From TrEMBL:
Organism of provenance: Asterophora parasitica
GO annotation, cellular component aspect: nucleus
PANTHER family referenced in this protein's UniProt entry, alphabetically: 8-OXOGUANINE DNA GLYCOSYLASE, N-GLYCOSYLASE_DNA LYASE
Domain HhH-GPD, residue spans: 1-181
Protein name: DNA-(apurinic or apyrimidinic site) lyase
Keyword terms of this UniProt record: DNA damage, DNA repair, Glycosidase, Hydrolase, Lyase, Multifunctional enzyme, Nucleus
Length: 258
């Protein structure tokens, strides 16, 4: 859906004709705030999200404007959103919760994945089960094993538990735990035990995103010699080689799938 939205509302940014791939940037709020956007988004398969996106973009433009900064192309509303990165987590969350269709989990996803709030843990019933299974959080899966309804207290308890374990990187730890617990990844890339069904092939998993596990920023980890992590001999400089390693892995994966 994000690809469809960007393709529809933004001009091409970068193309690779030999691979028939074209990348489009995310459109500015003023474009998504225009009349008729909701209907177009519904035609692209956004369903109920169409109105939320249009109304949220309009709220941004009405409150903060759309005049570009004189020295770059960002709109005033985008500048305001980016400024939330420098706000305290609670302040930024309070602002996000004002938007249409944004609840606690969506706000926390944005805080973690877009606003550098590494300690934030977006919680759903799956993350709740992980906290009980691996970290001793007291709770219940509900009657007859059914999913328990997420309450503010359960949400807070899971947040506190994982933050007490992982500290300021609790959000990144949550992302690793969440992905590792998915059945799709349980045996991916591992040898098939004798007598068992074969593991899913890369071809069958080709619809999965290649960037399943986002890489946390390295600068904070390397800010002092005392906190410098140990790296394998094959990685001499994480800050200089990380992007090359990630890119190389994506190319290898694309070739395997092809």
């Amino acid at each position: 859906m994000v690809q469809a939205l960007c393709t529809k509302f933004s001009p091409p940014l970068l193309s690779f004709p030999e691979e028939d791939i074209t990348y489009h940037p995310f459109p500015p709020p003023s474009i998504l705030a225009e009349s008729g956007v909701s209907a177009t988004l519904r035609s692209l398969g956004f369903g109920y999200r169409a109105d939320f996106i249009h109304r949220t973009a309009k709220m941004l433009v009405d409150a903060h404007g759309k005049i570009p900064h004189p020295h770059d192309s960002s709109e005033a509303s985008e500048k305001w959103l980016m400024g939330l990165r420098n706000s305290a987590t609670e302040v930024a969350r309070e602002e996000l919760l004002k938007f249409v269709g944004v609840g606690r989990k969506v706000a926390d996803c944005v805080l973690l994945m877009s606003m550098d709030k590494r300690e934030v843990v977006p919680v759903d019933t799956h993350v709740y089960q992980i906290a009980m299974k691996y970290y001793g959080l007291k709770g219940s899966s509900g009657p007859n094993g059914k999913k328990v309804n997420m309450t503010p207290k359960i949400y807070s308890d899971v947040n506190s538990k994982l933050f007490n374990v992982w500290g300021e990187y609790a959000g990144w730890a949550h992302s690793v735990l969440f992905t590792a617990d998915l059945k799709s990844f349980a045996s991916y890339g591992l040898p098939t035990p004798e007598g068992s069904a074969p593991s899913p092939s890369p071809k069958k998993l080709s619809r999965l995103p290649t960037e399943v596990l986002p890489v946390p920023p390295m600068a904070p980890l390397l800010s002092s010699p005392q906190k410098r992590p140990r790296w394998g001999n094959d990685i001499e400089s994480p800050t200089s080689n990380l992007e090359d390693l990630v890119l190389a892995e994506r190319v290898k994966r694309r070739r395997r799938i092809a």
